[in-house]
Specification:
With 298 residues, this protein is α+β, with helices and mostly antiparallel strands. The protein is built from ten helices and eight strands. It has two domains: 137 residues, Alpha-Beta Plaits, CATH 3.30.70.100; 151 residues, no CATH class. Strand 6 and strand 7 form a beta hairpin. InterPro entries: DUF3347 (IPR021782), HMA_dom (IPR006121), HMA_dom_sf (IPR036163).
Length: 298
């Protein structure tokens, strides 16, 4: 068993770069808890969680350039499991199977000033344990704003430069200006590299982790070429992950998800626009108004 554990650990470390490892206590009861905790914490090539139901200790192995223990423990808390760092939302805990509903020691011991305030309205966000001295801060209430509003503002703040650069690339392709598209794609790559993943709300963070590679690869391909026809192939690949991120960033202005049915031999391709009118980036002036809006975001 020890040899198997060592081999497993070696395999994990081989997949995860810039490896750091920490041990943390996460509360749970059974093998079902183990499966849920590990699934919630794991992110391919970025984070791996190994939880022991006997000791309640978890070994967290992660890429320090991509994530951190707080982000991993937040995801686990959102799945219903308390740690010594974060309390799970009450709703998430209540949804656990009866056999998985462990004794919430930390919740009982947490001292929250002004206990007349109702916890239920904050129950969809994890609570960081060391912040109980300040009820407003622990719940994410800053300058009178609600937690969800703060998270959305963080998402918009971190991802807005990426959205802006994407629209600039799109506009260059509408003009069929390959040199300009290349320059703007380089700016998009810079914006992608500057995203602080720790500032993203957990759901957005998870999508970012999955889609970041596709964003970077397609932006790089566009930047490497000055031929609009070549660039458009990769712009199609860029637009899908961008769409998924924009859907999660609810504070951005209205965006139109549009489609050209003719591109790619009739298979079609989508793009995002700040304008409701059709300006086709796949054909430019050849078929400027070919397409339609298939979805209005926000």
């Amino acid at each position: 068993m020890a040899i198997m554990a060592l081999l497993s650990s070696t395999a994990i470390n081989a997949q995860i770069k810039n490896t750091k490892t920490e041990s943390v206590k996460i509360y749970g009861n059974c093998q079902m808890c183990e499966a849920t905790i590990e699934k919630a914490g794991n992110v391919k090539n970025a984070a791996e969680v190994d939880w022991n139901k006997e000791t309640k200790m978890a070994t967290i192995t992660y890429d320090a350039n991509l994530t951190n223990p707080d982000e991993i423990l937040k995801r686990i808390a959102l799945a219903g499991y308390d740690s010594d760092q974060f309390l799970a939302p009450d709703k998430a805990y209540a949804m656990l199977s009866e056999c998985c509903q462990y004794e919430r020691i930390n919740k009982k011991e947490a001292i929250i000033p002004n206990s007349s305030m109702k916890m239920e309205k904050h129950s969809e966000q994890p609570v960081k344990m060391e912040s109980h001295a300040n009820h407003g801060a622990e719940m994410g209430i800053i300058n009178g704003e609600k937690p969800a509003e703060n998270m959305q503002m963080q998402n918009a703040g971190e991802l807005q430069p990426i959205f802006d650069r994407y629209f600039e690339v799109k506009d260059a392709l509408v003009q069929s200006d390959g040199k300009l598209a290349s320059t703007r794609a380089k700016a998009l790559l810079t914006a992608i590299s500057k995203v602080k993943m720790g500032e993203l709300e957990p759901k957005t963070h998870d999508v970012w982790m999955v889609k970041m590679k596709a964003l970077s690869e397609n932006a790089e391909k566009i930047s490497d070429s000055t031929d609009p026809d070549d660039q458009r192939v990769y712009f199609s690949g860029l637009s899908q992950p961008m769409y998924e991120l924009m859907k999660l960033s609810t504070t951005v202005p209205t965006v139109y998800y549009q489609k050209c049915p003719m591109y790619n031999n009739g298979k079609g391709a989508n793009w995002l626009s700040k304008e409701s009118s059709i300006k086709n980036p796949y054909y430019g002036s050849k078929m400027m108004t070919c397409g339609s809006t298939v979805e209005k975001i926000n």
